[in-house]
Amino acid sequence: MSMIYERLLLMKGLLAPDGHIFVHCDQRLNAHIKMILHEIFGAENFKNEIIWQRTTAGKTVSDNLPKNSDHILWSACSPNSKVFGFRGELSEENRKSFNKDDNDGRGPYNTQPIIKTSSPGPETTYDYVDNNGKVWKCPKKGWRFNKNRMKQLENENRLVFTEVIREKYYLRERELIGSQLPNIWTDISGNTLGYSKESVGYPTQKPVKLLSRIIEAVTEPGDLVCDFFVGSGTTLVAAEELGRKWIGSDLGKFAIHTTRKRMISVQRDLKDAGKDYRAFEILNLGK
What is the pTM assigned to this prediction? Predict the structure, then answer.
C-alpha cells in the first residue's frame, strides 16, 4: 500500500487539473485503494466504483464464492473534470422493444411516458392542451418537458396520446446515442481473450473494448492518456486507435517488450488502413 500511495501521489501531480484517474484492482485491495484515492484526490471527487464481470466461468469452490469480477475505481481531479458519458451498445432485447412503425421513413420506435418522477418545478407543472383541444391534467410531479418543448414534440409527431402522453424513441436515434450503462459491466468479456487475435500472451491483459470505453468517456481526440502500469499495452492501443496522445511506463522489461511489439503492429495496421498514427520511442530510465 505504501508503494501504491507514493505512485498515486506522483500521478496526481502529473494529471491535468480537469483529469481523471482509473485504478484497476481486485476485491482484496479495492477498499484500501479507495481510501488512498479519497486522501489524495478528495472524497468529494470520487466518482464511482465500476464492477467489471471479466468472466462468467468461476472455479468450483466449497467454502467461498467464485471470483468473476474486478474493480475499477474512478476519481476526478476536480468537480470541473469533464465526463462525456459511458454508453454501451443496445442489447438484442432492447432492440426488439422498438416494435412500432408509422411508415413515415423514421423507422421503428418504442414509447416511454413523459411523466416526471421527481423534482417538480414551475416550468414542468402545467395542464397541457394538445392540438385537438384536449386538456391533459398535470401529473403529480409534472412533465419531463416544458410547455414549448412539449408542443414542438407534438408538432413533430413524436408524441403518442393514450391514457397518458408518451414520447416516441426511434431505434435509429437510440443506436447513435447508445444505452446508458450502469456501474456493473457485464457486456465486455475476458473469457476468450487468451484465444482471440487480440491476445499477446500477457497474463493480466485486458480487452481493448474495456479501455476504449473508459477513454472515450472522459477524453477527446488529442488529449493525453497515461498508463503508469502499462502491462501488455492495451491502454496505449486503445488511445492510439482513438486518436489520443499517450504515455506508458512500467518497471517490467517483459511489459515494455510486449507493449513495443504490440504498438508497432497497431501502427502498421493503421498505416495500411490510411489512418493517422504517431511515432514513438522507448526510454530506458532504469539503472
Answer: 0.77
